[in-house]
Amino acid sequence: MITRLRLENFKSWEDTGDLRLGRLTGLFGTNSSGKTSLLQALLMMRQTVESRDRSRVVHTGDDRSLVDLGTFHDLLYNHDAERPLRLSFSWTLPERLSIANPETPEGVLYRISALSFTTEIRERQERPVVESFAYQFDGHCFGMRRREENGHEKDAYDLNTGDFPAKRVQGRPWPLPSPVKCYGFPDEATGYYQNTGFLPDLVLALEGLFSRLSYLGPLREYPHRTYIWGGDRPLDVGQRGEQAVAALLAARAADLKSGRGEGKGRRYKPIEARIAEWLRKAGLIHSFELRPVAEGRKDFEVKVKTARDSAEVLITDVGFGVSQLLPVLVLCHYVPEGSTILLEQPEIHLHPSVQAALADLFIDVVINRNVQIVVESHSEHLLRRLQRRIAEEAIAPDDTALYFCRREGGASVADKLEVDLYGNIVNWPAGFFGDEMGDLFAKTEAEMRRRAGIPR
Fold it and tell me: Are 21 and 372 spatial neighbours (Cβ–Cβ below 8 Å)?
């Protein structure tokens, strides 16, 4: 789970400060206030991890990537190349990482349950160059820093091991070459030293974090009358939800293979049953079924009934809200436990009551599936239901982190919303969701004036 995020000189953020993330994190605010940029920084790291180009410092994107942020220069706040871009985040590991003692292999040097990472990147000669990066845990630090020799800047680096006594092998003390991407130790970091063979384990921990990160964007695909599935198992539902049905079928196949959910009295509930249950709770449908067009066929139909006595129809023949909510539901129940989900405006095309039900879905998933959710939203109904559930003790305030993003001058600012034990936001920002009371007062005043025959 990601526990902290900090961006400096990134897009509209001059400095976010340390943003604490909870099991359920909500980002609210006006349009163009910087909410999406916070998600984009994490998505940029994921596609950098997934890139096959080890020399590519950061993968800012292209027309096939999760996010396309342009050039590195485009990333910089006010395009200020004099300042470095700094990304920093902390996370807890799904399992404790044990580092063997290189001096006595039977012993343990470190037991790591949480890590922090910071990378500093500067634009030099119109290309991004890593100035430094560091992994930190329990007061220890391991990383690399760019060096200057004889007054001339070179892409040469020193290894930083903090209080750990790294032992050089015999021979000339060559500097290290450039890092792998913006976070990895080159092979020389272990080849030039006798006792640093554990450094790749730190890199693998970071790559594991982003392999568990999934994203669903604000624009979902239109539903189809049929879906073809060739037996593949997608990592998630795709950024437009285009893989939602494939994910459902893959989960069904996995259940049948393992025997889970078969027989009476079993506690395990298949993913299709959970999806149907949540669609009923949201008041969108009565029943939901995914079945092949004909026996032995690889194309499938999604059939729904809107009411007990209604005819069964295809998902394309009911309201658009069902197909928009379906990828959200599938993603929340499909990703492995310990994953982090990024959601942009999941409430689009949904009725206010269904928007409120999203809060119940998210609470259920973060508590019962140990999945972290970071949601960017404009929905007052979602927030109000979350406040209610905090008051009802369905989720603790400490498990949530709510932010209101706004522009101050040309920079984005994130205000932490302080939520008490009863779900009250004690520092409610002015104009959070517009001026509702002002509109009601103006409407009443206009009504009174018109009834009295007073001209406008």
Answer: yes
Full DSSP string of 121-176: EEEETTEEEEEEEEEEETTEEEEEEEEEETTEEEEEEEEE-TTS---BPSS--PPB
The reply to whether 88 and 229 lie within a common domain is no
Q: Is residue 446 part of a domain?
A: no
Both 207 and 77 in one domain: the answer is yes
Beta-carbon count within 10 A of 222 CB: 11
Distant-in-sequence, close-in-space partners of 254: CB < 8 Å, separation ≥ 6: 233
Using alpha carbons, select from 134, 136, 94, 88 the residue that is nearest to residue 113.
94
CA proximity to 219, closest of 323, 146, 124: 323
Q: What is the pTM of this model?
A: 0.91
> Is the distance from CB of 216 to CB of 341 less than 8 angstroms?
yes
- Which of 394, 422, 437 is the last residue before a domain boundary? 394
Name the β-bridge partners of 110.
Answer: 99
Confidence grade of residue 50 (pLDDT, cut at 50, 70, 90): very high
Please compute the mean of the pLDDT values over residues 289-316 and round it to a whole number: 89
Which residue stretches of 316-370 are H helix?
320-334, 352-368
Residue 311: CATH number of its domain: 3.40.50.300
Q: Are residues 236 and 197 in the same domain?
A: no
Q: Which range marks the domain in which residue 195 is found? A: 2-212
Locate tokens 């037996």: which residue?
231
Higher-pLDDT residue of 401 and 30 is 401
For residues 8 and 144, membership in a common domain is answered with yes
Nearest to 363 by CA among 347, 380, 383, 336: 383
Task: Find all residues with CB under 8 Å of 392, minimum gap 6, and list them.
Answer: none
Short-list 306, 338, 307, 332, CA closest to 319: 306
Report the percent of the chain where pLDDT is more than 70.
94
The C-alpha R_g of the chain, in whole angstroms, comes to 26
Residues 383 and 306 in one domain: yes
Tally the residues of the chain. Answer: 456
